[in-house]
Specification:
The structure holds 2 protein chains of 2 kinds.
Chain A: H1 2-30, H2 37-48, H3 55-72, H4 79-93, E1 104-108, E2 115-118, E3 122-126, H5 127-130, H6 136-151, H7 154-164, H8 183-198, H9 202-218, H10 225-235, H11 244-249, H12 253-264, H13 278-290
Parallel strand pairs in A: 1-3
Antiparallel strand pairs in A: 2-3
Helix pairs in contact in A: 1-2, 3-8, 4-6, 6-9, 6-10, 7-8, 9-12, 10-12
Chain B: H1 2-14, E1 17-18, E2 24-27, E3 31-34, E4 43-47, E5 52-59, E6 62-67, E7 72-76, E8 80-82, H2 95-98, H3 123-128, H4 133-138, H5 146-155
Classes of the chains: A mainly alpha, B alpha+beta.
């Protein structure tokens, strides 16, 4: 419900600014004396009709964005590996405020070191990143970070923000409703895909980090898996072309690590003795790596 | 008493993450090496910035390290960078390092891992990709739902916990900085 509220508030801001705009327009057209109140009200009503993207729209945009991503890098053809990541992903998702949306997890056939989320419950990790992890707790940290982007609807909000600033004016009013593959949905999907190259707000990334470690702790893992991954990323050569996209679209790993450490100290340390899950991780991912 | 100690040690050990073949690391700033992984633990020695250390294991936000001078103790993970000197760590951290032999085409120790797979995703590739809805559909056949997740959790001895989300906290000072208020070898 909270998320709905955020959308509503975004919408209200949007409506308010549009209403202000129309007020100005009418003031210019008719002068204040001739203000056509009825017309104003109807326009205000219309702008209030701007709907946040509903769940159906969210799934439609999400599967469209996922299709684009999978067009650039397909799924790794290894059922055992994909099943492992999906079972882990679902176990994490069940610890959150959206346990019953259709979550989908996938390992991408790419040497790039990265992970992605798309609206509606799509979460991806590249083979390149997966093979650099040490344990299930580290994988849980990465997946939980992406799950958090879906929970907070960071990509959807970014698409709508883009709309608000006029880049995609008509997407703001999209409700998709029974309008499969409409032009508006296509625009939103395009904008959503573009976010993978442009990146989200830094604060969205920091928030997903803070939520990710909590979700990992709730799922029974050592929450320091994600910080450990960030430390690994920090140690890697920034000139490595496989890291280019992640470094371009995310705050520096060391900065993320320091903020996370500050937020976790005093509250999450007590969960550090929870499961590391090296054995199962090495078995499943190792079996795949040995192929 | 002894048994209790052993038990505690075993418990602790189970939560320690061994780092592959003693990873080299470097201190980012001047920092105190601690006897134990706690902020108020006794100081073993102060390590200047750019000291080479070897990582033995991690526990919570701490890394157990051995300095080049032979001192052993704990440092905050925020105060060290994996890799030695200015050289970045090899590109094969993590599970990859366990299967070096299996990965043919890996060229020496320059960190380049040659595989036949797709190279990293670039903005151009993302922009020019044609949508692949058939791949999205494939994902519908992956295991899903509570039953699968519960079985996975119990096989992995995972127990769910109630944990509240965290507030954002700005680090007050770099955790790597020395606090002057600590007495050298001070009381515990």
């Amino acid at each position: 419900m909270n998320k709905t509220l955020q959308h509503i508030s975004l919408c209200l801001v949007l409506s308010a600014s549009l209403t202000a705009l129309s007020l100005n327009a009418y003031a210019l057209d008719f002068g204040l004396n001739n203000l056509n109140v009825d017309k104003l009200i109807s326009i205000a009503k219309k702008t209030q009709d701007l709907k946040p993207v509903d769940e159906k729209g969210e799934f439609e945009i999400g599967s469209g964005v996922a299709a684009n991503l999978l067009g650039a890098a397909p799924l790794v053809k290894d059922e055992k590996l994909q099943a492992y990541v999906n079972r882990l992903g679902w176990w994490l998702a069940l610890q959150t405020e959206r346990p019953d949306i259709p979550w989908h997890f996938g390992v991408l056939e790419s040497d790039g070191i990265n992970a992605f989320a798309a609206p509606g419950g799509y979460v991806f990790i590249t083979k390149g990143l997966l093979l650099r992890l040490r344990s299930e707790a580290e994988l849980a940290g990465v997946l939980a970070h992406e799950i958090s982007h879906v929970l907070k609807k960071h990509h959807l909000m970014a698409i709508q923000k883009g709309a608000q600033t006029g880049l995609l004016a008509d997407v703001a009013s999209m409700a998709v409703e029974g309008n499969q593959n409409s032009e508006l949905a296509q625009k939103a999907i395009g904008a959503g895909t573009e976010l993978y190259s442009r990146g989200l707000d830094k604060d969205d990334e920091f928030e997903a980090d803070r939520m990710g470690v909590v979700i990992a702790a709730r799922a029974g893992y050592d929450p320091y898996g994600l910080p450990a991954v960030l430390q690994t990323l920090e140690s890697m050569n920034a000139d490595d072309s496989n890291l280019a996209l992640m470094f371009k679209t995310h705050p520096a790993p060391q900065k993320r690590l320091e903020l996370l450490d500050a937020a976790m100290t005093g509250s999450l340390e007590k969960y550090a003795t929870q499961v590391e899950g090296e054995e199962r991780f090495v078995k499943v991912v190792g079996d795949y790596a040995k192929k | 008493m002894k048994i209790f100690k052993l038990f505690t040690a075993a418990l602790l050990f189970s939560s320690l993450v061994a780092y592959a073949a003693e990873d080299p690391a470097t201190t980012l700033v001047s920092t105190d090496l601690k006897q134990d992984p706690f902020i108020d633990a006794q100081v073993v020695i102060n390590l200047p910035a750019n000291t080479s250390v070897t990582v033995l294991k991690r526990q919570a936000g701490w890394m157990q390290v051995k300095s080049s001078g032979g001192a052993q103790g704990w440092l905050k993970m925020t105060s060290i960078k994996l890799g030695s000197g200015g050289t970045p760590a090899k590109g094969d951290n993590g599970i990859m390092s366990l299967f070096n032999v299996a990965r043919s085409g890996r060229s020496g120790n320059n960190g380049v891992v040659v595989t036949t797979g797709v190279r990293g995703l670039t903005p151009e590739e993302l922009k020019n990709a044609s949508p692949n809805p058939a791949e999205v559909k494939k994902m519908d056949n992956f295991p899903k739902g509570k039953k699968e997740a519960d079985t996975f959790a119990s096989a992995g001895k995972l127990q769910s916990q109630q944990v509240d989300y965290l507030a954002a906290i700005q680090p007050t000072s770099t955790p790597t900085q020395n606090s002057k208020s600590f007495m050298p070898g001070g009381h515990k």
